[in-house]
Each structure stands twice: as structure tokens, then as C-alpha cells.
Structure prediction request, 257 residues.
Amino acid sequence: MADKTINLTLKIWRQAGNEPGHLETYELESISTDMSFLEMLDVLNEKLTLEGGEPVAFDHDCREGICGMCGAVVNGIAHGPEKETTLCQLHMRHFRNGQTLVIEPFRARAFPVVRDLIVDRSAFDRIIQAGGFISVNSGSAPDANAIPIPQETAEQAMDAAACIGCGACVAACPNAAAMLFVGAKISQLALLPQGRPERSRRALSMVAAMEREGFGNCSNERECEAVCPKGISIRNIARLNREYLRATLCSGDKTPS
Ligand code: SF4
Ligand code: FES
Prediction:
């Protein structure tokens, strides 16, 4: 089958650190619809470099939808128009010949722009760090069925563990809330016996870190769930709220670290 190509007008956010940013317009011709979105940006960067211009800075790593590094807002949608798809897994066949694409970084107070489309998401790392450790018995490997876990519970925990920490949920939320991310991280441990001993301390610490980093609060807009490339459900936000409430009411270590 003949390779189909499209021409595009790109309006891309260009910003150097703390300098004010602006949208810059680029024309790209003969883009193969088999390319991924990031490959299309690679083509643009090659063109800019050959012309003596400054390539567009964007984050990426695995390009397989598993590492959480890529991310940009395409025509107002974090990770672009395809449901449950990271930017690196988005293909150009989903765009029309002659279409204009406005490409911006994830915007949130807690995600300052580093350069162009790259934002600093280390606030997520600090929240994870605040979550601390889980208790695991050392020694020889336990039998696989030594700790029986109902299949439904295991699946819920695994679904929550699918979060790749990309930050699209924050970018899509009008409050720049990180509650889907934190809800997923809290849930994946709180649902399993191995994560129970420290559940109170973990919930209090991670929520405190989330607030410290300047993320907003959930007001049930569900925009986070709509853009999440891993299909993380807002039921995880409900579980986060329950875990937090339980931690504040129950006895145990209530000191956020
Ligand atoms: S909850 Fe979804 S959108 Fe948010 S960080 Fe995790 S994978 Fe990304
Ligand atoms: S580059 Fe790893 S998820 Fe997109």
C-alpha cells in the first residue's frame, strides 16, 4: 500500500526557562501517517537543525507508552486526541492533511516549564518519596499462594499500578490537582496486604506532600480520567479520600513526614 503523507501547520510553544514563552509557527510537508507524533517532532527538529535553528525540546524515553516521560497538550488535550494513548504511541494517521496542531507543555503551577515542551515533574517524585517504604519480610522467597488475595482485589491493585506518572491528569484538571496520580499510588499499596502496615502514615505523608507542592484539589471534573493514557479510574480518588479519612480518624502514626 502506498505511504500516505500529510502536510501540517504546527504552532509550538517555545520558551527558554523563566523567559516568557510564545507560540511559533512551522510548516511541515510530506509527513508519513505511519509516523508517531514524536517521530513527526524529530522530523521538524532535523529540519530546524539543518536550517541553523534551535530544535524543539521535548521529553521522551521508551516511546512504548510505559515510562511516563513524554507528554504535551495537542489542540487542548493532554497526550492528544486518542483515548488511553500516550503522546509517543499517538500516530499521525489520526490527523488530517492541512490540519493545524497547537502543541503546548503540560501547564500547572507545580510543573514549571524547563524549556519548550519540557516541564519539571519532580514534584511527583517528591510525593512518591513521601510515601516511604513498605514492610517486606526478608528471607527465602514465600510460596506464591502464602498470602491469599482475592482476584478482584489483585486486579484493582494492578490497574492502579498501571499509572506511569506522566502528569497528564494534572495538566487536564482545571485545579491542577494530582489526586488521580496520588490516588493510584495510594491504592496500589493500600489494596494489598504488603502495603497495609504503613497505610496511615503513607496516606497522610503523600497528601501533605501533594499540598506542599502546590497541586489543587479535586472538584469532580473527571478531566483527569478522560485524558489518562492508562485508564486510571477516579475510583482511586475516592479510595484516596477514604484512606486519608481513615488515617486521620484511626490510631497510629499520624505525623506526616
Ligand atoms: S493517573 Fe494517568 S494521567 Fe495521571 S500520572 Fe498516572 S498515568 Fe498519567
Ligand atoms: S516516551 Fe515513554 S511513555 Fe512515552
Observations:
- The chain has eight helices and seven strands.
